[in-house]
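Appendix B. One record, verbatim.
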Amino acid sequence: MDVQRVILLSALALITYLGFLQWNQDYNQPTSAPQEVVNPAVINGGTISNRTGSNSPGSDLPGSAPTADDIPAATDDAVAVTGLQQEQQEVSSSDLVRVQTDVFDLVIDSRGGDIIYAALLDHKDRITADDPFVLLEKNAKRTYVAQSGLVGRDGPDASPEGRPVFQSASSSYSLDDNELLSVDLKYTTEAGVNIIKRFSFERGSYRIGLDYLIDNQSNSPFLSTLFGQLKRDQSADPTSGTSVGMQSYLGAVFSTDENKYEKVTFKDMDKDNYKQTSQDGWVAFSQHYFVSAWVPKPGETHTYQTRKVNDEFIAGFLSPAVEVLPGSTAELSANLFVGPKDQEQLEATAPNLKLTVDYGWLWWIAYPLYWLLTTIQSFVGNWGLAIIGITITVKAALFQLNAKAFRSMAKMRKFGPEMMRMKELYGDDRQKMSQEMMKLYKKEKINPLGGCLPIVAQMPVFIALYWY
């Protein structure tokens, strides 16, 4: 009985500890004081209506222009962009384009066409807050943006004059009742090459399509290389903590022919630059529940690499160089995923991308439970009923163990008077009392730990569900 009491108390203490951690994460997180936006971002003569606070799109944006070192070189021997670009970008104020869909609230910087803000409308910042969860942002608090462009010999993003400033037909776009939304940003080089940078959105999808439509109306071939990269500082994952010895991974992830899922930590990037050439693949920044990933066009050989610039970490890809002859057109494309680790959407976006889902060290329990939960939900069409279903299934799987536990507890109650008699008889001789008790257990086939077995068996299931 003493051993059983200890196990029960230990299990209760563990459950209390886990509950406290979750409560502290959901309800006791300190919130930073709101920062008033003094100069709202101007868009084509108008303004973005920003919420007051550091998470608002456009806050702190005048100082958010990328530096010259942000842009990758198309080749190893390419000449670095001069400091003139950095100087011009620091003093320039670029326009912003806002895009709203059923799942996104995005801000695109027309200088370079980078996504500098992404709020996920279906996910809350905290349980107690109404604001959506912000995954990408660029402000005094945090840097986490998705960049893309054209570099190489004629790429406008490699120009010494700075990154191209695109023009858009509107300062804001909305999906409304449509299924698809296209946002076109236009730029024409001095030589007469027309470039359209097109972002495509689909209802209910966290995948963003990127297309560069190049129309060469100049007299010379246009040679450029498409790049896509994610730039992030080393700020902590706001959705994860450390509990029961588990901590979610935060850092870069690459998928190549050589390694389908390769983690490159901030420490790794700080020591040396990662570089790998692969057919297909993808690059991502992963945290506990959310991920951002660039997926270049399949069927081509891409170069994946990392860099560290001014305490910020960059992970991205370079596609093969493309030459567009005079009078010809070409299209360069890639996909960007920005959102929660929804396995169905991750799998539809790219092979092996669902490997970014973090099940913790109890993955061998968590993954089958997730599969079972989604399978039940696909039949009943309701997550509440699916949870009830998985609870019944787990109880059914542990039924025999529970039955043995109940029989063991019944025997313990049946021989309770005999045990009390032994305690009174051998109370002063604990060794003798233990020997007599063991004889009784052996004779009557009593397992003193039998009542604790269901709790012990259910604890890994509980921890696996809690972590995921």
